[in-house]
Model the fold of this input.
Amino acid sequence: MATYLAFLRAINLGAKRVFPKDDIRRVVEQAGFADAATHINTGNVRFTTSMRSRSRIEERLERAFAADRGFEVPAIVFSRDEFREVAAAARELAASHPGLARHYVYLMKEAPSAATIAAIGATASHLGEMVVRGRSAHALLRPGYEDGSVDALGAAKLLGVGTNRNASVVAAVAERWC
Done:
């Protein structure tokens, strides 16, 4: 059995998209996955399965979530090894960019194309930059960024289907599950 981590997009953002972590665990296990565990109430779930196809795992989770909740819940799935690499990239980027005001990590279903990566790079400004590493993109926001937006650079709209977590949550999930 392999261990996977799924990151759910756009849940618990108001009264209409509520999906408590106990319900997430229940639905994941009802969908045929085992050992489901969650971390905080932002849609981070770990589970085991004999399935090997990331896209098939995502499809099964998304069907189960929609059936249970009545709304679509995109799931971005990483193997334990893949997520360990995301967390390592976050640590390396934080170390090479001291004094950041914020560091958001976008987790994507698919890695962006070279052209998209170039377009993302072109959004760099005095506010910061976004660095793409495979299926993750790191928004490295400098002091002076104060608006509270997770997409101060306007780059997230280029990433495709994904979700974001701050670097602290990425580190905590990796420490706990990787």
Notes: The longest strand covers residues 2-8. The beta strands are 2-8, 34-38, 44-49, 75-79, 102-108, 128-133, 136-141, 162-166. The domain at 2-79 is CATH 3.30.70.1280 (Alpha-Beta Plaits). The radius of gyration is 16 Å.
